[in-house]
Design a protein that fits this description.
four-stranded antiparallel sheet; mainly beta; 1 helix; 26 strands
Length: 356
């Protein structure tokens, strides 16, 4: 098995933020010194700071839009007594996030307990005119996946109704929806007690999306909370949360088609319990339970960045008593065959390279 290098970012000396200069003192008496300027050594020019969003974004989604990026969380209580149902954040670079307007994706959604969003996924489908932005979300009863549409990534979103219902699927519960656009087709993924399924969606402007064909089981029950990513027409990644010996980890598998068969680097599939894929993100000394890989983004040179959440061991809860899982962004290098070469560990502090 390939040995992974581990990314652990150490604290950066304050001296690195100061400009560096060398000088030659004049000794001939003309009173002129020559100064050689080597340029600014400000670490912010080459690094960014993790976590990229605090205090929490677990169960949320991160999406590239036509003008930047959005992140939408489920129902959260970041401050004790102040509840947001699907708060929406914006960013121009994935590294800096704004919540200045305290926007909610569903400003008209009921604040009743059974209407609170527990899981949410975003989709941009450029072929759907006027309403290219879609959310797929689950409320507290975990019995249905609903859809909502908007003309901009930040909303406001209009509820379109129920897309997946346990009354039709026969599942005991539904969780962790995600969605992906592949050329002109759209697909939804969701987790059930028996595993994770993929199914094609037909999406029309401002209308309820319709399931097309039969759903396909793509991962066993050990591989949950999935996020799919298309690298090329014959190379798909599936990321998921897996329970390890020391808590949750993030694993991945690959396939030639969107609906599988997904396999880890060892060649075993993730359907029958033979494999839970290949490890990508594990806990660090300061952050436990990495999970909810909620975004994969292509940067220059076909390099990939991923976003996910993890729990700070020194401060695992919000003031409200709810779990506190900040959002991290990391570069994930790959080899020539497309397998990741670096084992990621979430750490607070400066990280490099920057997303470009």
């Amino acid at each position: 098995m390939k040995k992974f290098a581990s990314i652990i970012l150490s604290a950066v000396s304050a001296a690195a933020m100061l400009p560096f200069a060398t000088g030659c003192t004049d000794v001939s008496g003309d009173g002129i010194d020559s100064i050689v300027w080597n340029g600014s050594q400000n670490i912010a020019n080459t690094h960014y700071h993790n976590p990229v969003w605090e205090p929490d974004l677990n169960g949320g989604t991160v999406l590239k839009t036509t003008t930047g990026f959005i992140a939408i969380a489920p129902q959260v209580e970041w401050v004790n007594g102040l509840i947001y149902n699907a708060p929406a954040l914006s960013s121009t670079n994935l590294m800096d996030w704004d919540f200045n307007n305290q926007a909610e994706a569903f400003p008209s959604l009921s604040q009743k307990e059974d209407s609170l969003v527990t899981d949410v996924a975003a989709l941009y489908s450029r072929t759907v005119a006027r309403t290219s932005y879609w959310l797929f979300y689950i409320t507290k009863d975990a019995k249905t996946i609903r859809a909502a549409y908007a003309s901009t990534g930040l909303g406001p979103y209009t509820d379109a109704g129920v897309v997946v219902d346990v009354a039709q699927t026969g599942d005991a519960s539904l969780s962790c929806p995600s969605a992906i656009n592949v050329t002109s087709k759209n697909y939804i993924f969701y987790t059930t007690p028996s595993g994770t399924y993929c199914q094609e969606l037909t999406i029309r402007p401002a209308s309820l999306p319709k399931l097309k064909g039969q759903r396909t089981l793509v991962a066993g029950p050990e591989f949950t909370d999935v996020q799919a990513f298309r690298m090329s027409k014959t190379d798909f990644y599936l990321f998921g949360t897996v329970k390890g010996a020391a808590g949750t980890e993030i694993h991945y598998a690959r396939a030639e088609k969107i609906d599988g068969t997904y396999k880890g680097q060892d060649g075993h599939g993730i359907l029958d319990g033979q494999s839970t894929g290949s490890l990508l993100v594990r806990a660090s000394q300061t952050y436990a339970d990495p999970q909810n890989l909620n975004g994969v983004f292509e940067a220059s040179g076909d390099s990939l960045f991923v976003t996910f959440t993890a729990t700070e061991t020194a401060k695992p809860q919000l003031s409200s008593g709810k779990p506190r899982r900040p959002l991290f962004l990391y570069y994930a290098p790959r080899d020539e065959q497309g397998w990741f070469t670096t084992l990621l560990e979430p750490v607070k502090g400066w990280a490099t390279p920057k997303f470009k």
